[in-house]
Amino acid sequence: MAEGVPQPVLIVGTGLLGTSLGLALRRHGVEVLLTDRDDEHLRTASSLGAGRPHAGEPPGLVVVAVPPDHVGPEVARALVETDAVVTDVGSVKTAPLRALEGVRGIERYVGSHPMAGSERSGPLAASPTLFDGRPWAVVPHETSDPAATEAVTALARLAGASIVRLSPEEHDLAVARTSHLPHLLAVLVAGRLADAPAEHLALSGQGVRDVTRVAGGDPGLWEQIVSGNAPAVAGLLTQVRDQMDVLIAAVTSGDRGPLGEILEQGVAGTLAIPGKHGGPSRPTASVFVSLPDHPGELARLFADAGASEVNI
Amino acid sequence: MAEGVPQPVLIVGTGLLGTSLGLALRRHGVEVLLTDRDDEHLRTASSLGAGRPHAGEPPGLVVVAVPPDHVGPEVARALVETDAVVTDVGSVKTAPLRALEGVRGIERYVGSHPMAGSERSGPLAASPTLFDGRPWAVVPHETSDPAATEAVTALARLAGASIVRLSPEEHDLAVARTSHLPHLLAVLVAGRLADAPAEHLALSGQGVRDVTRVAGGDPGLWEQIVSGNAPAVAGLLTQVRDQMDVLIAAVTSGDRGPLGEILEQGVAGTLAIPGKHGGPSRPTASVFVSLPDHPGELARLFADAGASEVNI
């Protein structure tokens, strides 16, 4: 099962992603070494079964799973200090790559980015199934060694993910659109709630909860992510700002034409999002079931769905 | 149980809300009469058990449940043609009220707005439990008869909802913030996906799905809702546009100070949203459970939660 993954795998950073990856790899018997600046995180990850603390063994593959600001330096260090294939799981790809120019062994580096996460962080939030069926971007740069790309692809596949191969530039444009822009707009909507009167907020329904959920994510982490992908994010924000000017003009003047066009384009966008497990959109059926808000109702429904071999 | 609700109740419009209300009232034995311009909707609602077709009987309470553009004229007609208390379930309150100036019996009118709905519409989407535990705004105007306000309050309570009493102006500001702004920003995010390359969209995770879900709602209906609440919506959109300019400047210049402030304000906003059933925020606990993506897992979890008397 672990074919193609150079061992041992050294995971640098035992937060949510690093620990989850360790747990996923250990399921397949891969030898996993762990390191972290934070001893407590390291002990926790290790005691959860994500791997054993690194004691200097030379790794076959290094996975850098540290906050975005530290990805470049940690990848550089791994390239210089080992002869291993090196990857990272950071949310942006071009900025860290620029920081690696001229570093020895850069051909052994292939960036990657699993599209999995949580509003929580830290090793206690980890799960061996975090990557199951999720898209995982494998992002070789122009001078990446094809063997290194194959090793990182094998790693992502072993973790249970679906591979999407992209260049660093394409990757950063893609996540600006599918992750960073939605996050920032959710933040702006949520920001308008922060100082609203309580009796106004009493009218909050499911819609505003869904739209703003991601805005609860760690601001320190998102500051790094957005800053690391500044050009792509700024470009999209500017497009949305221009659309917003059209929208404000339409709403103010009562001109329903442009308002209707923008609303229609939104519907088209929701239909463009591919199926649950990434990759091409798969045929699904929507089944609407109304449930009374009583204990046990969801359990009954989902048990029946499971018995009928329906994937929810 | 049906105390305080003047009978029979005539429901004008047998879409999602009208039919759901009929079903909810029939549970309590209330006499419900139905009418709709669309005979097929009327037959469907009636055959579902939401009430019987109106044959001219004088109603005690009229509920206007038609699309936003038609609320004003239909309320006026009900006031003039009957001596009943009249309410509506539309999403905006000040614009229809302006259309009623000088209409006979306006003191019998009290607006209302249940915070319940669906991406779907029509009587087949209806459910008697649609309003269970949901906020329901009861919105008397300056000359509303207190007895009429009591009748509409009794109706909303009988439907299972939690009452939030607001003036028409407060109501429209509240829904601009908690419903119309989130909807429009979700639409703008979704709009950026409509023409994106498929390999970019392959990186879509749960976040973008949540943020954009509401953008799939009926554009024709939302055009009417947004237009009906234009001043409040335009005001909030302008605030967000100004924040967006700050954001674009911060991202472009790499100035993390203002970026961090905006992100922190977003977190504060998510915390300001009250508990599931409206009203004041109630203490809840978040329990994180990781599930493999296999059939039956959610059912097992929810069955265990139900057995433990946990409200999900």
Task: Supply database-style keywords.
globular; homodimer; 3-stranded mixed β-sheet; alpha/beta; 12 helices; 5-stranded parallel β-sheet; 312 residues
Low-confidence region ranges of chain A: 276-284
Largest sheet descriptor of chain A: 5 strands, parallel
**In DSSP terms, counting alpha (H) and pi (I) runs of 4 or more, how many helices of chain A?**
12
What percent of the residues of chain A sit in helical stretches (DSSP H or I)? 40-55%
Order of strands side by side in the largest beta sheet of chain A? Answer: 3-2-1-4-5
Structural class of chain A: alpha/beta
Overall morphology of chain A:
globular
Question: What oligomeric state do these chains adopt?
Answer: homodimer
Report, as a whole number of angstroms, the end-to-end distance of chain A. Answer: 28 Å
What is the rounded Rg of chain A? 22 Å
Query: What's the rounded overall pLDDT mean of chain A?
Result: 90
Strand content of chain A: 5-15%
Structure in words:
The structure is a homodimer of 312-residue chains. Chain A is built from twelve helices and eight strands. The first copy, chain A, is globular. The two termini of chain A are 28 Å apart. In chain A, strand 7, helix 5 and strand 8 form a beta-alpha-beta unit. With 312 residues, the first copy, chain A, is an alpha/beta fold. Chain A is 48% helix and 10% strand. In chain A, helix 6 packs across helix 10 (230-253) and helix 10 runs antiparallel to helix 11. The first copy, chain A, has a five-stranded parallel beta sheet with strand order 3-2-1-4-5, with helices on both faces. Chain A has helices spanning 16-27, 39-48, 68-81, 94-98, 146-158, 168-191, 198-201, 206-212, 219-228, 230-253, 256-272, 297-307, and strands spanning 9-12, 32-35, 52-53, 61-64, 85-88, 111-114, 135-139, 162-165. At the A-B interface, helix 6, helix 7, helix 8, helix 9 and helix 10 of A face helix 6, helix 7, helix 8, helix 9 and helix 10 of B.
